[in-house]
TrEMBL record, chain A:
Belongs to the Mrp/NBP35 ATP-binding proteins family. NUBP2/CFD1 subfamily. Component of the cytosolic iron-sulfur (Fe/S) protein assembly (CIA) machinery. Required for maturation of extramitochondrial Fe-S proteins. The NBP35-CFD1 heterotetramer forms a Fe-S scaffold complex, mediating the de novo assembly of an Fe-S cluster and its transfer to target apoproteins. Pfam families: ParA (PF10609). The lineage of its organism: Eukaryota, Fungi, Dikarya, Ascomycota, Pezizomycotina. Residues 76-91 have a biased composition (Basic and acidic residues). Residues 76-95 are annotated as: Disordered. This is Cytosolic Fe-S cluster assembly factor CFD1. It comes from the Eukaryota.
UniProtKB/TrEMBL annotation, chain B:
[4Fe-4S] cluster 1 binds at residues 34, 48, 51, 57. The gene is NBP35. One of its GO terms (cellular component) is nucleus. ATP binds at residues 87-94. Residues 26-46 are annotated as: Disordered. It comes from the Eukaryota. SUPFAM superfamilies: P-loop containing nucleoside triphosphate hydrolases. Keywords: 4Fe-4S, ATP-binding, Cytoplasm, Iron, Iron-sulfur, Metal-binding, Nucleotide-binding. This is Cytosolic Fe-S cluster assembling factor nbp-35. Component of the cytosolic iron-sulfur (Fe/S) protein assembly (CIA) machinery. Required for maturation of extramitochondrial Fe-S proteins. The NBP35-CFD1 heterotetramer forms a Fe-S scaffold complex, mediating the de novo assembly of an Fe-S cluster and its transfer to target apoproteins. The keyword Ligase does not apply. InterPro entries: Mrp-like_CS (IPR000808), Mrp/NBP35_ATP-bd (IPR019591), NUBP1/Nbp35 (IPR028601), P-loop_NTPase (IPR027417), YlxH/NBP35 (IPR033756).
Length: 313, 343
């Protein structure tokens, strides 16, 4: 069984589309990997797979092995991490060079002949694909499997949870991270998703509020484009943990879209640390190395530590 | 079942064709790889072996769905039907749908209807400020909820006993509801019906297309945001429209650029690294209807269920929207001056 050697399975859910499920999944995966864990990302958004684009591996194809598919590697574990394997994980905030865990992806996007092709499937076909993704992918031994989902509470979600409840042990299925944006329109859909989790018995690990504010790169004025504070209020209302607010950072999209290392104006201090400026820009590295320079990394680093603590009880 | 590397695509034509046929009543859920109870191969495919529905599917008459003429008749009084589509979620389909509704309704001579087919995440009622309403059932059918004298709305949200309840439905059930919306809602005489859709290319889209085909759809407005992550999904939606024979009225780029209210510096929050909507429209040979900038007040208006059009008529975003509405009008052969009465 392909889920056998996975320690924790975490879903990333949201009732609303375009709130940043895939972007949050990507950042959770990169951060977990930077903290030394081995991570797999499964994209069950069948009609709009974004994960290949986010990890900049759109041209990769899935390989077939006896009895299953081999997921696409984003990067392998670094040496330091392998030596550390099984020991204490390195504290990633010390700023020293440190190891990172392996990162693999699986998405329907890898199976399409042409990236513009529409996938026009009705429910039963989607169900079959979700099941196949859960049973036929050779993940190997993983610390975390993150599952990115499409918006809504329909076929993909029902099949996913059904299959997971059947095939994974309760200890493996750690729960769901809910993503929302601050405005009321999004919150009202996301509430439905939390009710979905309650109904099917999936634990809500916490709520992440994405797109909370945009800092003008010119005058540092923060505009709340999509209102503010909605995620926290909702988390309190439903009595689930609030993990944090993530602002809009154009440098993150630049990193994803162009693969360029983020830099910030002089005097940008995040978490007590001066962010990299244009002048001391390093030569481009891998995605995971570049992500450490992003202003969102310290935020996610904190949230992921909190999450890991919750998951491990 | 052993996985295969062959392209996992069901030909779109098959899916579209099958959707036009009548569905037999089944005794068990459809199995994996079900060819579809409506399809020509129903009951004969490999997946059908051992399925409790096999005999029903194999013997059911493969005629056209008898409800389609009923729908056509019901919608006969509607002059223009416009779909709002996008492969990607959260790009502003519902926001644009409400804007289009308000814009059409700003001329008191027009009667406008908005139908929300997003069953798992309906946003229209909240954006229109009518999320506490319920539907009235009369002898002629379901009465839509009227926001103003000439603007009616229909959404699944009105039927939920508790508005935070999740609608945990699989495809066939969703299709049934959409059909009922089209068949049973008493729209009366409408000038425009704007249909909002969920993200993706799946059950809802196939159903809407199938059921409306006979009665004639003017076309679809496709919404995108400038970044490639969104364009990627929208490209699929355009591919879907082409294969399904839905005419594309044009592409709208939403959330393009943000002007800082303090220093008026323009930032590209969702960077158009691959040329944005304009380039996509050119590549796909479809009209580009316009770009609407981000404005925090649009989101706020939606949250409070107010009309951004009426409240901030002078903002740059509103001007851009009006331009888009005018272009939509042109593409369906209506004099733009008749749509926006005030200017």
């Amino acid at each position: 069984m392909s889920l056998e050697n996975i320690k924790h399975i975490t879903l990333v859910l949201s009732g609303k589309g375009g709130v940043g499920k895939s972007s949050v999944t990507t950042q959770l995966a990169l951060t977990l990997s930077l903290q030394g864990y081995s991570v797999g990302v499964l994209d069950v958004d069948l009609t709009g797979p974004s994960i290949p684009r986010f990890f900049r591996i759109e041209s990769s194809k899935v390989r077939q092995a006896p009895g299953g598919w081999v997921p696409v590697p984003v990067h392998e574990a670094s040496k330091e991490s392998e030596e550390q394997n099984g020991n204490e994980h390195i504290d990633s905030t010390n700023g020293q060079s440190h190891g990172h865990g392996a990162l693999y992806c699986m998405s329907l996007g890898f199976l399409l002949a042409n990236r513009g092709d529409a996938v026009v499937w009705r429910g039963p076909k989607k169900t079959a694909m979700v099941r196949q993704f859960l049973s036929d992918v050779h993940w190997g031994a993983l610390d975390y499997l993150l599952i990115d989902t499409p918006p809504g509470t329909s076929d993909e979600h029902i099949s996913l949870v059904e299959t997971l409840l059947k095939q994974a042990t309760p200890a493996q299925l750690s729960g769901a991270v809910i993503v929302t944006t601050p405005q009321a329109i999004s919150i009202s859909d996301v509430k439905k998703e939390i009710n979905f989790c309650r109904k099917v018995g999936v634990k809500v690990l916490g709520v992440i509020e994405n797109m909370a504010g945009f800092v003008c790169p010119n005058c540092s004025e923060c505009s709340n484009i999509f209102s503010k504070g909605g995620g926290k209020v909702m988390a309190q209302e439903f009595d689930v943990p609030f993990l944090g607010s993530v602002p809009l950072d154009p440098m993150f999209s630049r990193l994803i879209e162009e693969g360029k290392r983020p830099f910030y104006p002089e005097g940008t201090v995040v978490d007590g640390k001066q962010m990299q400026t244009k002048d001391d820009l390093l030569e481009t590295g891998t995605l995971v190395q570049n992500y450490t320079a992003c202003s969102l990394f310290p935020l996610f680093d904190g949230m992921v530590k909190e999450l890991v603590k919750t998951i491990n009880g | 079942m052993a996985p295969s590397l062959e392209e996992p695509l069901q030909p779109v034509d098959d899916a579209l064709d099958a959707a036009l046929k009548k569905t037999p009543s089944l005794v068990a859920p459809q199995p994996e790889h079900c060819p579809g109870p409506e399809s020509q191969n129903a009951g004969k495919g490999d997946a059908c072996d051992g399925c409790p529905n096999q005999a029903i599917c194999a013997s059911a008459p493969k005629g056209p769905d008898p409800d389609i003429p009923l729908i056509t008749q019901r919608l006969a009084g509607i002059k223009h039907k416009i779909l709002v589509l996008s492969g990607k979620g959260g790009v502003g389909k519902s926001t644009f749908t409400t804007m289009l509704g308000h814009a059409f309704a700003s001329n008191a001579d027009n009667t406008v209807g908005i139908m929300d087919t997003d069953i798992c995440g309906p946003s229209i009622p909240k954006m229109m400020g009518v999320d506490d309403e319920t539907i009235h059932v009369t002898s002629t059918g379901w009465e839509p909820v009227w926001v103003s004298d000439n603007l009616g709305v229909m959404s699944v949200q009105f039927m939920l006993p508790n508005r935070d309840d999740a609608v945990i439905w699989r495809g066939p059930k969703k299709n049934g509801l959409i059909k009922q919306f089209l068949k049973d809602v008493e729209w009366g005489q409408l000038d425009y019906l704007v249909v909002d859709t969920p993200p993706g290319t799946s059950d809802e889209h196939l159903s809407v297309n199938t059921f409306l085909k006979e009665s004639g759809v003017d076309g679809a407005v496709v919404i995108t945001t400038p970044q490639e992550v969104s364009l990627l999904d929208v490209r699929k939606e355009i591919d879907f429209c082409r294969k399904a024979g839905i005419k594309i009225l044009g592409l709208v780029e939403n959330m393009s650029g943000f002007v800082c209210p303090k220093c008026t510096h323009q930032s590209e929050i969702f960077r158009a690294t691959t040329g944005g909507g304009k380039k996509l429209a050119a590549d796909m040979c479809i009209p580009f209807l316009g770009a609407v900038p981000l404005d925090p007040r649009i989101g706020m208006s939606c949250d409070y269920g107010e009309s951004f059009f009426d409240n901030f008529g002078d903002s740059p975003a509103c001007k851009a929207l009006k331009e888009v509405v005018r272009n939509v009008g042109k593409s369906i052969g209506v004099n733009p001056d008749e749509i926006l009465a005030d200017d």
